[in-house]
């Protein structure tokens, strides 16, 4: 018998996958708890407003079990190194939109989100994507606000035209 080391290269458990499984379990538990507190309309009816959230919670629970099994065996594929900068650009755009939405209005705040997200995806020229995002967001605001009569936050740009 010769010493074959091919089976000695087993992968370790994937701890990131365990964190994902824990997140799935938490979401499933919250959904099931919330669905169990929904009031039923009729006592004789088996299918009510809580049925689909319970089905989804059960599915998430099963996915959590499957994720734990795959993580324990170490069968998840190797992940590429994560780039942090694009995520920071997108999160900064979301925070900027939330902070500016009431002050600057929908068009400017969402245009900023558009430009920062484009920067996160590799578009380097903010001076092009920011005005384009503002114009695109203004068109969206005009369609939803003026044509569909939905209420979106209006800022100085929207008040200038309407």
UniProtKB/TrEMBL annotation:
InterPro entries: DUF1468
Transmembrane segments: 15-35, 47-68, 88-114, 126-144
Domain DUF1468: 19-153
Any Pfam family matching the protein: TctB
Keywords, in A-Z order: Membrane, Transmembrane, Transmembrane helix
Protein name: Tripartite tricarboxylate transporter TctB family protein
């Amino acid at each position: 018998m010769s010493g074959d080391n091919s089976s000695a290269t087993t992968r370790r458990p994937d701890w990131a996958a365990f964190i994902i499984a824990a997140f799935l379990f938490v979401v499933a538990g919250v959904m099931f708890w919330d669905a169990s507190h929904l009031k039923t309309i009729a006592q004789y009816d088996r299918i009510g407003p809580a049925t689909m959230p319970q089905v989804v919670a059960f599915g998430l629970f099963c996915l959590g079990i499957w994720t734990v099994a795959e993580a324990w065996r170490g069968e998840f594929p190797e992940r590429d190194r994560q780039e942090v900068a694009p995520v920071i650009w997108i999160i900064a755009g979301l925070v900027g939109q939330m902070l500016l939405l009431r002050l600057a209005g929908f068009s400017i705040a969402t245009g900023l989100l558009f430009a920062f997200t484009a920067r996160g995806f590799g578009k380097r020229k903010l001076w092009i994507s920011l005005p384009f995002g503002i114009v695109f967001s203004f068109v969206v605001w005009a369609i939803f606000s003026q044509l569909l009569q939905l209420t979106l936050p209006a800022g100085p740009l929207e008040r200038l035209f309407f």
